[in-house]
Structures are given as structure tokens and as C-alpha cells.
Automatic annotation (TrEMBL):
Organism: Acrobeloides nanus
Domain of life: Eukaryota
Topological type in the membrane: Multi-pass membrane protein
Keywords: Membrane, Transmembrane, Transmembrane helix, Transport
Protein name per UniProt: Mitochondrial carrier protein
Upper classification of the organism: Eukaryota, Metazoa, Ecdysozoa, Nematoda, Chromadorea
Amino acid sequence: MIYNSPAGFTRGSSNIVELVKKDGKGNRNLGRRIITVIYKLDGIKGFFRGIFASLLLYVPFSMLFWSTYYFYLYNVKSFVNWYTIKEGNRAEKDKCFTTSQCISAGLAGATAALLTNPLEMYRLRVQVQRMGYKRTAEEMWKVEGPRCLWKGLTPRLLSKAISATLWMGLYETAKKLSIKDEYQYLVAW
């Protein structure tokens, strides 16, 4: 439907891409020109298009991420503890904790991305196609059917898994480094 066709993707009342192309300025100050066109077409509301769709996506994503992160962390830690005790390396058990956190974060990011991908596709269409919420949903379903909800799943899974692994690894490392020794026992690792 939209491959190599920005006009097909931005089927709103006025096509922002076409309006920016018509001004004849090439790629100079492209960001400023796009902002100006959005403001002229929609006013200040144009910059907040799809904010409720974003909330509809990011609240469940965050809830799913954090709940599955701790679920995976518990299971990964249990496996590491079982494996190190089985192998007789009881001292190695705590050295794998940051790795366990990173693995758990990657799995949680992928799980949350998988379960919220339909909401991501809806959010993108609301923001880019410049139609109302109901009309966007009807148009998506009419033109593409149920496939529209799972487009872009593979790159989103990879993106969320990799980014969650990196930022949770950095967060947990910073947390470990910033806790004073006398408060270590208070932190749930």
C-alpha cells in the first residue's frame, strides 16, 4: 500500500509532503519548512496529533515491559543458580547477574513489542495519515485487513529487544555503582 509512496501513506485532507515539495526550496531547512506547513494546516493542534494513540500504546507497553522483565529476571536467575550449583561453581552465581538482567530486558522488550505492535501501527497511522481515530481504524481495516496490525513486527521486535538490553544494562550498572555500601542490603537485586 505505501511502499515508495509517501502520498499513499499520508492520505489526509492535505498532503504535507506535496506542500513541502511545491515550495521549490529542495532540502534546505527541511525541518523548519515541515513545521511551518503543519502549523499552517492544523495550527498548534497539528503538533499533538495522535497523542491519545501514543498513550494508548506506551502505557500498556510500559506495563508489559516491567511485569515481564521481572518475570524473566526471576526465571533467568533461577536457571543460572541451578546451573552454577549443578556445575559446582557456587561463587560464580552472583557474577552473572548483570548478564541475567540484560537477557531479561531483551526478552521483556521483545514480548512487550510483540503484544503492542497493533497499537503501534494504529498510532503511526493516526499521526501520519491525518485522519480521525475512528476513520483511521476503518481505513486500515478496509484497505489491508488484519495484516495491517502486524506490519513492521520484525524490525520493531529487534529494535525494542536491543534498546531494552542496552538501557537496562546501563541502568542496572549505574544503580550498582551509585549505591553506598551501607545501603546495599536495602536494594532488591
